[in-house]
Amino acid sequence: MKGIVFTGDRKAEIREFPTPEPGPGEVLVRMAASSFCGTDMHFYRENWDEMVAMRKSFGGSAETITGHEPCGIVEAIGRSVKAVKPGDRVTIYQHVGCEHCNYCRQGEVMFCPDRRAFGTVFNGSAADYILSPQRNCLKLPDELSFERAVVLACAGGTAYQSVRLLGICAADTVAVFGLGPVGLSAAMFAGAQGARVIGIDVVPERLKIARKACDMETINATQDDPVEVIRDLTGGAGISAGGDYSGNQAAQEAMLNSAGKGARLAVVGIGDSFRVTPQQHIMKKLKLLGSWIYNIGAHEEIVNFVLMHDLPLEKLITHRFKIEQGVEALECFDTGKTGKIVLTWEA
Question: Lower CB density within 10 Å: C or N end of the chain?
Answer without folding.
Answer: C
